[in-house]
What does this fold into?
Amino acid sequence: MSLSIVTSGRDGLRGRDGSSGSGYGGHGGNATNGTHAAHALPIDVLLSAPGGASSSGCAVSGTHSGGVPFGPDSTIHLEAKGGRGGDGGRGGDGSSGRPGTSGQNASRGCSGTNGGPGGPGGNGGHGGDGGNGGHGAPVRVVALDDDMDLFMLCNRCDVRGGNPGNGGGGGCGGSGGPGGAGGSSYSWTESHTTYINGQSSTTTTYHSSPGGCSGPSGSPGRAGTRGTDGTRGRDGSFAEVVRSDGRENSYDWRYVAHVDDHLLTDRTTTDGIFEPGEACECLYTLSNQGPMPTPKVQRLMSSIFANDWLLNPSTTWAAQQLIANGRQSKLFEPIKFMLKDIAEPRPNWIFTADTKVRWSVHVERVRKFFTEAELGPPVTLPIQYPVRLSRTHGPATISKSEEAPLTICLRNICRRALGSAQGRVLRTHLALVKSVDSMEPLNQPHLVESVDPNGNPIPFLDVPVSSLASNTNLVPGFLVRFGPEAKQYSHMTIGIQLFLGHINDFSRERRIQRMSLDLQLAEYYAPDPSSDLCIVTTNKTTRDAFLAWGSMSRDHNFSPNFWNATLHDGISFEQKVNGSSLATDYKHRTVLVENNNPGFLTTLRTDRNADDEHAFDTLSSREVTRAVRDGRTGFGLLGRMINERQKLIPSDDHPPINIPTAEHGFDVRFMRDFHYWQQRLAMYPVPPTGRPDFLNLHDSLVKAKLPSAMAWSLLVGMAEVRCGDPIEQVTVQRPKCLEERLYHFFQWYSPRLCQPAFVASLCDLTRRTSDGTSASEDALFAELSSKFGPEVQDCSTHRMVYDTIRPSKVCIKTARETLCKAAAVLHDDVSQLRPQWKFVVLFDIAPHIVNSASVTTVMGVKVPPVVPGHQWLTHLCVGRLYLSRSGNRNGACLQQQPMPSAAAIDRGVIEHPATLYTLLKASPFFKKLEQLTSSRMSNAALAAFGSIVAAAILSDLVEEQAAMRRHNWSGPIPEPTLLEHCPCLGAFVTTVLTTPPHAISPNGATVALNVAVSLHVLASRWMRWHDMLMVSRRCRVLSSVTIAVLTPVIIYFAGSPVTAATAIKAEQIRRKQVKDVDDLAVQMAKGLATNRSSQNVELAFKGMCPAIVSGIRAQEQPAQIVVDRWVMPTSRHRKAQLHKLRTDFDNKTGEVKRRTTRDEQHRRLDYIACPGNHTLTELGATKLPQDAPICGICEEAVVYGGRQCRPCQWTVCVACLAIGDGTMWEHEIDAEAAGSTPAEAV
It folds into this structure.
């Protein structure tokens, strides 16, 4: 209910607009002024409660009368503001001027006259003035001192003066009249005939009279002036008056309560923790922030608002009345409330809840509440239990020969000790269970069993706690091992339960938390020479998924092997496991990674990025690049996407390759015989094992299948080499004479020494000493190398960069800019020569720019000083460029199938067509072609499999074509050798045409035909109109030769040229719906995936400094492979491992301590520390058995020395130190796969 008393003044009226001018040149009329607004009327009312203390409403008397009942929603609305002044009218527009009179037309006797001038336009009318705003009125609200609570009903009264009216705009002046048209001209002719000697002659004369000009336009009219704005009205006044014994005290506002110094306490346990179901109290002080004192008679009732967690709050009141401005009052008694009790929390969750405590304060009789803005913001109340279990700490995957030590941290977070000795029971229970929901014991020792530190089987571990002090930890633990009948990738559940005395009965325990850990059984990587597919799994891989991976891969002619990333502590290609490495075992093969499990190592690894780390993140970009480039290993990823552009950056330590040159100088012939290719292929390695050797085929057999012009595809494709690429051999070009050699050396290290006199003196000294031999030259350069650096010789792997610049302007910044530009140019040049390469151009800045050596003499000859003064432009060497390769665009790739993070990879995902496509796409091209002869192709019910194979083969062919078409012109690659850069196309054509017909199933033939027809249609469209008009356009030439190669394949499988033409026509119609050919190429390149593979993804950089590569590598944390970490031969090993896991918990937080680096984490796993993580000191002399301390791990007497913690007197014996400080595993770098010698690897 509300009562409105509004005496605001009325708004003024808007003035009338002026009339527009009439006729020609009429002036616009002036507008009228806006009217003034009315003033507000004063309000003077008396608030009273007719019934006194038992009154149910408020009565209003005085200038206005009425009443409202008491209640939270009751309001008396007061308003006495001035009205707004009226706006002035707009002036009228002037009319246009009269048109000028037209001139007289010309005649034979006179010229035409000019037109008359136009009339002036009319002036615009003036705008009206705005009206003044009305004045606000005084408002006075009076109440007796016994009824001061009635002021809570009134709102803040609006007594502002009215806004002024805006002046009206002036009218626009009329435009001047147009001038009259001039008179038109007049022309005529006259003819005269004369007779001379009887002959007539006629003469015609033309005459004209000019017309008149148009008259000038009239002047425009003036615009009217804008009216002035009115004035704003004066503000009124507002006062609340308290009348007492004939005296009146006036205030501009009432009292305002504000909550200060709040205090929430738990009444049941008084331990500082608010538990579910606990009785609590709240105390706070009330301060008056308003000018008026609080009511004299009525009390300020105080409480908190109830919500889902805060139940049944009591109500109290302020202990003091008439609280003056700025003073405070405490509550009469605490506010009591209950927290809602809950059932048992869900599994694997530490119960915490937050609720908002909102203040509730109102005046006693009127029951009107203060607003939240007046009382202050609410506070957050955390609800939790006083004790909790942290996450389980221990391995998530072990092998059959290992035992898993598992620990759990029980932490008391309240202010009081807990336990049976402290009056409140506390117990934790660890056991092997069937599921975390039921917590039913497993009791199957033939599959898995739990053991104590001595190796004895135990059914469970029950730990009743006698006393657990405040903010301390209790870390129980036991070990688990799998039985002889456990199967690979079986999962067992360890259940941990926490029991605490009930909040209402401390002796009656109830379960407040239950945690679980899934322990997986897997085996370490075992090399298998017959395996061509490595599947990387994690601890989340189930046995059903493990079986699905095996059946799916074997069904598609793959021999799988498995690498468990959790068991090995990551992935590494170069570290050896069981005598071999992935880099050696999976050259020209495939690695499929389950990359969907974030934090797959957080059960043990506790570095800063472990929670977000996925399996593929542990594989360094150096290893990925080497595997793709050198081993031609393909990667398939299921799960989180990675940054391919940065993951495939070439390694900076790889030897530089030759900078290729144009092929115009080669003796290239399109018609080549078999013997030419036999000699050419002899330079390359033997094809992979198991591949047919086509070098022994007879020339006639070659020509029987393909024209002699296509012989390249048969041999090149199946041998998987690019015959147009010469053997990469580094050629060194040594200077012809000693002077050139010295100039070349000094240009690189110190250009100021390239002075003829100094170089000549060195040459003369060397020749006098050596008598024409090179022995002293070697001595000279040996001394120069010791003072400057090794000699840099011209070779085919580096390109020196020179710049014409003043030596004083040379610095690292300018040199880097010059080298970056030169690197971009070199990158473009090499990309045209080798379109299938993926590489970066690295550059080295010349040493004389980075750090010039201070050398005074060379071979006894004094080094000339720097010439001071002006330095002219000089041709200086600023650095050198060299190439570093990554994978090829038509070679091994990195294919990704995105999945939501933490999504499970089950049998449905594994058998999905997208997963099979990812596997085939990541496989080498020859493996895709082998699917055409697969027995699985013979099953007509598996037509979908054929479409997947076709999509994978077509994707590789399209990516190869796209790489070739990145440049518009044939350029340095001659047209006859263009197809030599497309080995995948050659391999496809060769395979399908040389395989016996009975070896290819009908489905395989259909796949080959579909691939050939699709690529044929794409190649025929993959040209622009200008490619057809210009010569040497790469797209036109490549499309023509591609179509020529594919045509025999289509005819071979279609049966006849007519059927082949029909198939091509049908495919053109089907692909016609994709208008843009680039979109069609992208669609074919993607296949069944949502994104393209890494084949056509550009690298992150074109050119860069090796320091950038080193910086990127430094940010990575490659895995350190772990083998047999959890083998426990003795009880001492079990106790030591349990102790190391216990010391991983932080004594202050109860959580596992975070490590900043992975090396620090691995050092921590090898180190024995005391429970307080203090530094251990060596014990001195040997002590007697009766005086010897007890080892804190094996609990035996320390008699032969050891280490001891001085603060806590914790001691460890020598035997336990040998276990803890010794290396628990070894990893060996595969030097051959890493591209270095064993000594370098060490």
About this structure: The chain has a mean pLDDT of 82. The chain has 30 helices and 50 strands.
